Amino acid sequence: METVCHDYSPKGVKFFYIYKALAHPETNGYVTPFTLKERLMHVKEAERRLGSQFQWLCDTMANDVKHQMGDAPNSEFVIDPQGKVVRRRVWSDAEQLRKDLAELVGPVQPATKMSDLHLKIIPPPKAAARGVVPRIQVPGPTKPLIIEPEKSKTPYYAKLRAEVDESFLKTGKGKLYLGFHMDPIYGVHWNNLAAPVHFETVSPSGVTISPKSGQGPKVKEAADVDPREFLLDIEGKETAEPIELTVTYFACNDEEGWCRPVTQKYSIRLTMDSDGGWASSRHRRPRKDRPAGQTARSGRPGTPSGRMPPRARRPGGPRAPQQLLERIRSNDKNGDGQITRKEASPQLKRFFNRIDTDGDGTITQDELREFIKRRRPF
Amino acid sequence: MLCLRNILAGAMVLATAITAGAEPPRVRADGGSKAPAAQNRRSLGNRMSATFDNRGPKVGDPLPDITIFDAQGQPFRLRSLKGHYSVIVFGCLT
Fold first, then answer.
1. At a CB cut-off of 8 Å and minimum separation 6, what does A218 contact?
2. Topology of A2-117 in CATH?
3. Model-level pTM greater than 0.95?
4. Which one of A90, A93, A118, A345 makes the best mutation probe of the B interface by having the most chain B beta carbons within 10 Å?
5. Residue ranges per domain, chain A?
6. Using CB atoms, which residue from A36, A71, A324 is nearest to B51?
7. ipTM of this complex > 0.95?
8. Residue B86 contacts A, CB cutoff 8 Å
9. Which CATH class is domain A319-378?
């Protein structure tokens, strides 16, 4: 996209990214902003990290533009000088866009290559250690719930994400996921020298949560930014009354030199949040041939969690495109836009040498693009 | 990341073939299915495309009359995009 922008900006074409709700919260640690101010901080972070020449715009907190323009996470439109849509596609495609603009505005020869731009994607911020507290693997699909943070003068340094599993939605009995995620835009971390995060819930009539309260683990590391996650039993019917939750934790910001106790409150509605996105980093789709309750990791010695052993084929055919996309994206663990052999999944390692044409042990964007071109035009 | 996402969107097609080994794709481009087990399954991508087609503006439509914000938080009216060609891409940090 940047090369198209580089070639067509001089011809008077304006390029805009519209920042909307997170498609995959928790990826690289980013969590759903609660306020417009925080979403604008995300925009600044996107500008900082991506170095794009596009102008960034910011959707409303209700995601009005996203909803009225088709509700796709990475859609693309070309608007003519009269303000009318002349091209539209559900998924942004740089090569097709270049062809569109060649038709509409005229061709640019030679086309700029990514390597000409020397773009560098900056890694996401890291306030403290990661990988200290094990993540919860939720057994099965879940849906995000609408949460309403109480007005607070203190920013929500740790942000709640709440989800219920499909069993609860179908039968009224299932699991409630609560995750408290340190928001990287504030540069904060848990203070593990103080009391661990603690929460309490108050359920509306007809809804039972067990346990009603919980406390995070005691961690040896003095500081970390791993989420504190809980999987609770929930039983009851959908109700207009929310679950009330109070959380207490201790946050520190080393750069600004402060540590402070924080108590904050939420209302959790038992209503699906259609803009809540999908936390792909946490979920493993259950396999039909896996016994109930067995996790992706258990019973499969020698294979990383949730991944197929070499040469195995998925029951039921290939993954859905979006899942595959997320699976490949997840290889870029430090978010620098390149995939090292160490970062690559077992599946990707099988094809690593064919993609890494210069043999330097890193798959760059150009190499990936060239490999794809060799295999199939898109 | 958005650039990487676009590249990987193409890789996804490739990876589909990788995951399926030498098998031909089971779901046809026209939405039909060769495998009975897949007959009632609509992929996330198909659902997304259907929603996009149903709710999104069509070719020839004006942009919705919504005021959003620029990166500084100042109001920005979408319909002010006139007088030149504009490219709009939705994105986020994840």
1. A192, A196
2. Glutaredoxin (3.40.30)
3. no
4. A90
5. 2-117, 138-272, 319-378
6. A71
7. no
8. yes
9. mainly alpha
